[in-house]
């Protein structure tokens, strides 16, 4: 999962650009050897979702093929060559020169395949990637779920998802060809701690090959700190101590530079270095104490948003200028955090968060989970959730910006509508709720075993079981009182929110983040007094929630839904196929609510 980099020991080529592309609705590509090249293709941009690039692909989620030619530099012949796909949603298979080399299941996370034995060194190579994004109830996230607003319901959206964002499909992040030494650094794990003014950086390095020693250099504040690596088998671990450490935080996102080198023998001479890898290190701690979240031992109040990787035409495709723009807007509005709702964002987003001091709640694509369709389906989704959490932590474990893992968003309890309307539970519901409890107990145990240094949460829907919430280090809830219920009645919604918050804290005694709250708003629509869908209503709705939170010390954060308007499926409740709860429009123009948040959040933080 190490992000590819170019240095004196490692090589890489970005294969982004125009690729050949062909739909395969009849699923004949494999039998007709499209892995060797596509018949009568058209051109498509990579990375980008395929849905908005052509008129006939917007609602297409079946199989499609990508292909292009590439050369492998002659100088790479003594190295191992990999092909890395940053995100192929939902499932992908890969061929090199017609030879099948591997597959990956689940979108939004990278996978790398060893293609050394499949490439030609003296002629052009062909890479073909089959991608399919079918919506199925046993996938994560689920789609085409019967019995819950399915195709027969007048409320159903199109496409029929169990989540409220568009199911963009395709190769949505870069495809990178890279080469690394045979004797190499396989993985690096960094854990930081603080003792007074002294910082510590614990580093574990996993290697491959016959190297027995290596070296660490940590650079920062005009100082270099050195440590030796002595391997026991393929693992070495050491710790560097930094007096008067400069701590990473939203106010000062200082990054030290860590360089790991690997020696081919006992010699420490530069010519004996076989591999080198560099990464940024932010020295910080994260913890919960009572009703407070502590960053570097001091209380911090999270201000920010739920977001989406979404923009016209390229969909969920990596857009570097948009990342720069969005982080500038986060800083402008006074935000210090966001949640990767509802899937892992690009590695480039995480790097920018490190550099700008934005805290991240990192979430797997477990949105719309349900527990009413039988044990086999539940276990299938559990296996996928575990795989995605393992991959996510392996990818993002070294980012100081990532302070919390989210195992799911709005899992659906049994008989959700009856619970939502205050109908309580029955014995059958209790049994199904227990299935969910067991599911999340496994997810929390796995996540904490993989990374005991960060907080873990599950984000609850309105009416969600308290026993699921109680597994969390921080209680995260999504609430829309005054929008979906008490519609048009902001004051009534705020009163209901206040009572619920007090009840939850009395019952659970943990810090609470309201991870979603908001109101759909048509930019430029106004009314006096405020009415639903107007900019005034959105601003007053957010103001009411902020005021409720301000009088409750146990509320540790507020994430508005949403940062910017984003594309959804078509439905009677989504005008223009958009969720309009953004405080910025889809093209990043501020609504009145953005100015309200800037006024509130750029004042001194709540203690």
What does this structure look like?
- Among the domains are: 11-180, Jelly Rolls, CATH 2.60.120.260; 184-281, Immunoglobulin-like (Sandwich).
- The chain is 20% helix and 31% strand.
- It is globular and about 70 Å long.
- It has an eight-stranded parallel beta barrel with strand order 23-24-25-26-27-28-29-30, surrounded by five helices. It has a six-stranded antiparallel sheet with strand order 3-2-4-10-7-8, with no helix packed on it. A four-stranded antiparallel sheet has the order 1-12-5-9, with no helix packed on it.
- It is an alpha+beta fold.
- α1 runs parallel beside α2.
- It starts with 10 loop residues before the first strand and ends in a 6-residue tail after the last helix.
- The protein contains nine helices and 32 strands.
CATH homology group of the domain at 11-180: Galactose-binding domain-like
Structural class: alpha+beta
* CATH architectural name of the domain at 11-180: Sandwich
- What count of helical segments does DSSP give? 9
Percent of sequence in beta strands = 25-35%
Distance between the termini: 38 Å
| Largest beta-sheet details | 8 strands, parallel, barrel
Over all CA atoms, what is the radius of gyration?
25 Å
CATH class annotation of the domain at 11-180: Mainly Beta
Based on the model shown, name its key terms:
alpha+beta; Immunoglobulin-like; Jelly Rolls
């Amino acid at each position: 999962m190490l992000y590819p980099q170019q240095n004196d020991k490692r090589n890489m080529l970005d294969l982004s650009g125009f690729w050949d592309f062909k739909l395969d609705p009849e699923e004949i590509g494999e039998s007709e050897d499209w892995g060797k090249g596509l018949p009568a293709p058209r051109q498509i941009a990579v990375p980008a979702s395929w849905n908005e690039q052509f008129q006939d692909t917007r609602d297409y989620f079946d199989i499609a093929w990508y292909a292009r030619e590439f050369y492998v530099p002659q100088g790479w012949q003594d190295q191992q060559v990999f092909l890395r796909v940053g995100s192929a949603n939902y499932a992908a298979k890969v061929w090199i020169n017609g030879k099948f080399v591997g597959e990956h299941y689940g979108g939004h996370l990278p996978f790398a395949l060893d293609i050394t034995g499949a490439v030609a060194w003296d002629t052009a190579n062909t890479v073909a990637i089959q991608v399919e994004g079918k919506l199925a109830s046993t996938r994560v996230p689920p789609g085409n779920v019967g019995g819950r607003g399915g195709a027969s319901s007048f409320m159903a959206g199109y496409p029929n998802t169990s989540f409220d964002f568009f199911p963009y499909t395709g190769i949505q992040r870069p495809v990178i060809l890279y080469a690394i030494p045979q004797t190499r650094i396989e993985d690096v794990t960094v854990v930081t701690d603080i003792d007074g003014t002294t910082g510590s950086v614990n580093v574990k390095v996993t290697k491959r090959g016959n190297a027995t020693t290596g070296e660490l250099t940590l650079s920062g504040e005009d100082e270099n700190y050195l440590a030796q690596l002595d391997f026991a088998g393929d693992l070495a671990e050491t710790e560097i101590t930094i007096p008067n450490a400069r701590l990473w935080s939203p106010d000062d996102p200082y990054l030290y530079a860590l360089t790991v080198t690997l020696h081919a023998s006992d010699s420490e001479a530069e010519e004996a270095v076989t591999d080198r890898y560099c990464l940024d290190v932010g020295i910080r701690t994260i913890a919960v104490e009572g009703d407070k979240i502590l960053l570097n031992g001091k209380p911090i109040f999270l201000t920010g948003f739920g977001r989406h990787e979404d923009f016209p035409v390229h969909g969920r495709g990596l857009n570097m200028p948009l990342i720069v723009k969005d982080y500038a807007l986060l800083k402008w509005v006074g935000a210090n955090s966001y949640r990767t709702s509802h899937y892992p964002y690009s590695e480039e987003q995480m790097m920018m968060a490190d550099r700008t001091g934005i805290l991240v709640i990192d979430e797997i694509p477990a949105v719309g989970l349900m527990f009413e369709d039988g044990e086999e389906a539940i276990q299938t989704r559990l296996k996928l959730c575990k795989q995605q959490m393992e991959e996510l932590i392996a990818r993002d474990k070294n980012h100081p910006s990532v302070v919390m893992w989210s195992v799911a968003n709005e899992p659906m309890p049994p008989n959700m509508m009856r619970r939502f309307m205050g109908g309580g539970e029955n014995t059958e519901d209790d049994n199904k709720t227990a299935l969910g409890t067991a599911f999340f107990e496994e997810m929390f145990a796995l996540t904490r075993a993989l990374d005991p240094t960060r907080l873990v949460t599950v984000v609850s829907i309105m009416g969600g079981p308290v026993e699921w919430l109680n597994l969390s280090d921080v209680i995260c809830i999504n609430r829309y009182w005054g929008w979906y219920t008490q519609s048009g009645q902001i004051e009534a919604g705020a009163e209901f929110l206040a009572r619920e918050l007090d009840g939850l804290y009395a019952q659970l005694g943990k810090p609470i983040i309201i991870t979603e709250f908001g109101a759909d708003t048509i930019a430029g629509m106004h009314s006096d007094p405020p009415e639903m869908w107007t900019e005034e209503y959105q601003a007053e709705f957010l103001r009411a929630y902020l005021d409720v939170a301000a009088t409750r010390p146990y509320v540790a954060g507020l994430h508005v839904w949403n940062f910017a308007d984003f594309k959804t499926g078509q439905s009677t409740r989504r005008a223009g196929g958009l969720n309009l709860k953004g405080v910025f429009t889809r093209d990043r123009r501020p609504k009145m609510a953005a100015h309200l948040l800037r006024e509130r959040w750029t004042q001194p933080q709540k203690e």
